[in-house]
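I am writing to request your help with a piece of structural work I have in hand. Thank you for your consideration; the sequence and its tokens are set out here:
=====
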Amino acid sequence: MIITSYFPPEIGAASNRIFHMAEGLKNDYDISIVTPLPNYPTGKIFKDYKGKFRSTTEENGIKINRLWIYASVSKNKFLRLFAMLSYSFSLIWFFMWNNIPDKVIVQSPPLLVSFTCMFFLRSKKRKLILNVSDLWPSAGLELGALKEGFSYKILKKLEAYNYNNADLILGQSNEILSHIKSITTKPELFLYRNFPQIEFPKLRETSSQNGKIKMVYAGLLGIAQGILKLCQELDYRTIEFHIYGSGAEEEAIKTFINSNKNLPIYFHGRVKRDDLHLALLKYDLTIIPLLNRIYGSVPSKIFEYAKLGLPMLYFGGGEGEDVIKTHQLGWIAKEGDYKHLNEVLSGIHLKDLNHGLKSSIQDIAKVQFNFEKQLEKLKQTL
């Protein structure tokens, strides 16, 4: 059983990661998913699920249990807490009335949800596997979403409880695993990168009618990504900027574009993942930004874009920066330094972004970011 707060048809790295893990494990295990009714990132229950208290379906050989949640993306911390509590209550009810298998993978964060699972499912007969994709509450503190105080101390205790009661912890970065080691040495640790399970597309030459680099961002338009500030700070003399996605900053980005029609910024909205992959092939360069460096974070876009053969400009610091450098996937700009970002951009030329570079990036991905090899190692550990 995999318990997660995000699952398709929701978009985003967390949703994709769990989906591919489930698909990869289903040949060796009977897989079931427990997840809320889909609502992310809009904060509203998706149209096909409105009015439902629960939905149980079987899709591609996987049983999917979708539970009630009070959906919200409100900035009001009490409403957001209630949203997390509502899913936790649904989980407790589900645990009471359903047989839980002897191996359970729990996605963390959200911290409160993962604590609910670790507390109510602990048993000597059951193996609890915690899949840690971000370090909460530390990441919340770095993003400015949390402040040190009583509630932060409580969250730190929940975090420590989760780690101490896991039999195995999967971490998506070495920084995450190092952080966990500083808290407990009880569970076994496994580096599980967010490698996507996608086809390697045939690469094609891109062309520019105006001599400018076609740079693209695709993904969530949230506070952490800082796309609005990026729009405001970029030097557009050598680039045009294309944006795909949806999220909290979407309306503000649209307003900025409409107020600055002289700037070559193009908003394409949210598109299906397969369609997005085809669209990305026509761009010269992608940017992967983080407004602030988040300890433990390695954006999954790195591995996805590498398989697409898309050169990257990384602007977020941390371990993600090391991955770009080590595997020669593109360029690095100092985190939070927009002057340096524009200097790096001015030094990139269309001739640099050629078919040879894209083929090289794709070849590296085939060897270094191999989903099947990583999955086989995980199966041996489970």
